[in-house]
Amino acid sequence: MSIEKTGGDHVDRLRVQWARELPDLDTSPMSILGRIYRLSMLVRPGIEETFAAFDLDRGEFDVIATLRRAGPPYRLTPTELYKSLMITSGGLTHRLKRLEKAGLVERIPSPEDGRSMIVGLTGTGIKRAEEAFRADMESELALFASMPAARRELLAELLRELTENVTSNLADREN
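Structure tokens predicted for MarR family transcriptional regulator:
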């Protein structure tokens, strides 16, 4: 059935408009990337609201979640953290200062090199990371309540494939 007959979604309507204006242009990437972007914009406020309920912003949650996922003793070097988070060392320093002030992380002298520090979760940080993550997953799971598990699994598989494809294509461009 054509978009014109079904009305389609927001992305379909954009593609119809572009097809009218630039009929020679293939807008099929919008079918995927446009929807991914739109979904991200739709869910972002709810995710941010969930973290705000735990006195965290998204970036702060990312730091404490990364430390929590690292497993006991929930410690990483600043370099391991910023590489894992794909942010600059300066961006990490700013987040760590706020988290340290809130009592969620601590900087511990490295046993291997007394000149460097390791970032570790405090007991409060471990608890906050777990509570915030549980609340986030509950909230996000509710978004998929009407989608059968098999469809969610298929979608996850397709998105994994897309991510690998895009990553590979971007790496090829850099070489």
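The domain at 56-144 is CATH 1.10.10.10 (Arc Repressor Mutant, subunit A).
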